[in-house]
Amino acid sequence: MAGGQLNVLATLDQAKTQWYHFMAIVIAGMGFFTDAYDLFCISLVTKLLGRIYYTDPTHKDPGNLPPNVTAAVTGVALCGTLAGQLFFGWLGDKLGRKSVYGFTLVLMVVCSVASGLSFGHEPNAVIATLCFFRFWLGFGIGGDYPLSATIMSEYANKKTRGAFIAAVFAMQGFGILFGTIVALLVSAAFRNAFPAPPYYVDAKASLVPEADYVWRVILMFGTIPAALTYYWRMKMPETARYTALIARNTKQAAADMAKVLNKEIDEDEEEAQRQVVGADNFGLFSSQFVRRHGLHLLATTSTWFLLDIAFYSQNLFQKDIFTKVGWIPQARTMNAIEEVFRIARAQALIALCGTIPGYWFTVALIDVMGRFWIQIMGFLMMTVGMIALAVPYDHWIQPAHHTGFVVLYGLTFFFANFGPNSTTFIVPAEIFPARLRSTCHGISAAAGKAGAIIGAFGFLYAAQDPKKPDAGYTPGIGIRNTLFVLAGTNFLGMLMSLFVPESKGKSLEEVSKENVGDDNDAAAYA
Predict the structure, then answer these.
(1) pLDDT 10s per residue in the chain (526 long)?
(2) How far apart are CA 448 and CA 309, in angstroms?
């Protein structure tokens, strides 16, 4: 769009914060609420799945999922998410953001319910159907990343755009907390209704048949809030930037936004068409894109990749870390449902004290501090936190120091969310041109999920004790050395953040250079 900015887009950029902004946050945010619930609730029930389907009562300890099954159950949704981010990111630029927005939600709701209805009673049947539905659940979740971020960035005004996108992403925190609350309530209800002795007292009696319902209810419950927002997703108009800049229908864009803003928007049709027709149309694989945005795409993909190695390994394997430092009792001292309750309680505390506050600190300060400094600070503090856990690790595993370990561990979550976990989501929705915005966000997010897969699979094996690995595992480098590795990935993330541009206070057209013609390209970057 060589020259100025379309009037409808300038009006959106200058619009005061009003009701439709908050509606957009809730509608897009409930998708992320469900995303987080579905991706992370699996960590609450994997121990229970191991007890139900892989326990041998003659052994002194209850059963665990075999290494390959743990990796599959934990990682299959992440693989689906990666594929969904690439596919729906591309589709959002081809068909429109709204056109595929409802489909991703339906896919999430259906597959979340189906994963709790996994067929059969034999381990192979249950795990196979669980993995099948969680892959497609992840596929739908993947679509929500680029579409929600792009929709919110294109609806927001430029003054508070960062806070609005951050607020959508912050619903992840409530999704994680809601998952732990559901697990606490369900496990407490079943524990009281069907009391059982600890495993070491009576191995068979410690696992009541009704425990098989616990994990199913937990997996299915998160669909309810998301399903309630489907109607409102379908009522949202297409974003003005897609309609005007990609579909090239400035009249429709002005009409849609006039309804949303309750304000007349006058657009000089002839001048608007001249600007739209004269806009740049270079593609993702063009030399012009590489010159203008190649370094930006490298920065957004690499930082999200490095962040998620640490972030997902921390989130998905909290229960293992807490058990090894003694914050959760040994499995043999509890019955099956009691173990779910203890794991959920520990993760709820981390979510309340570290995860959720971090998200909302970002919402409050991102348009004050800017994306760049929050990301640098977050990576730095995560690096320091991991080193502080790793260096005196033998000190932290002593019973008297468990609380200190949990506090430091919680701080790493706080600075992940008041830091790169939020900003890596926000920046790709702002710095790329409209016709490639959803695609580039999907690519960046998919790079993050590749890091998450490495974190999920890698941590599972790397954190094994070098001398006494868990049954079925090969010796690893131990939790202490794994924490050093995660500190290293965070430090690399901080270095790559130096290439991320600041987008605070700028219109999307300004930061993506859509209002700079090719002739002025060199001057714009000089």
Answers:
(1) 445 678 888 888 888 888 888 888 998 888 889 888 988 888 889 999 999 999 988 898 898 888 889 888 888 999 999 999 999 999 999 999 988 888 998 999 899 999 988 777 789 999 999 999 999 999 999 999 999 999 999 989 889 999 999 999 999 999 999 999 999 999 999 999 999 999 999 989 999 999 999 999 999 987 887 788 888 888 888 888 898 888 888 888 888 888 888 788 776 666 556 655 545 677 888 898 999 999 999 999 999 999 999 888 776 566 666 666 667 888 899 999 999 999 999 889 888 888 899 999 999 999 999 999 999 999 999 999 999 988 998 887 787 777 788 788 888 889 999 999 999 999 999 999 999 999 999 999 999 999 999 987 887 777 787 888 877 778 888 888 988 999 999 999 999 999 999 999 899 988 888 765 544 444 443 3
(2) 8
For residue 526, give the 3-state DSSP assignment: coil
Using alpha carbons, select from 163, 79, 175, 454 the residue that is nearest to residue 304: 454
Indicate the DSSP class of residue 17. Answer: P
Residue 425 carries which side chain, given as an amino acid letter? F
Residues near 157 by beta carbon (within 8 Å), at least 6 away in sequence: 12, 13, 14, 15, 16, 17, 21
Encoded amino acid at 417, one letter: N
Would you mind telling me the total number of residues written for the chain in this entry? 526
The position carrying tokens 């409808």 is 8
CA 305, 307, 313, 316 torsion-angle sign: negative
CA angle 183–187–189, rounded 5-degree value: 120
Which SS3 state, helix, strand or coil, does residue 278 take?
coil
Using alpha carbons only, what angle is made at residue 199 by residues 478 and 341, rounded to the nearest 5 degrees? 70
Q: From residue 294, give the alpha-carbon distance in Å to each of 203, 299, 526.
A: 58, 9, 16
Query: How far, in Å, CA of 155 to CA of 25, rounded?
Result: 10
Cα–Cα dist 204/208, whole Å:
8
Which residue bears the tokens 């965070």?
490
- Residue 116 gets the label, from left (phi > 0), alpha (psi -120 to 50) or beta, of alpha
DSSP single-letter state for residue 492:
H
Yes or no: say if 501 and 369 are a contact pair by the CB < 8 Å rule. no
Helix (H, G, I), strand (E, B) or coil at 393: helix
pTM, to two decimals: 0.89
Sign of CA dihedral 137, 139, 142, 143: negative
The string of DSSP letters for 41-97 reads THHHHHHHHHHHHH--TTSSS-----HHHHHHHHHHHHHHHHHHHHHHHHHHHHT-H
Handedness of CA 390, 392, 395, 396 (dihedral sign): negative
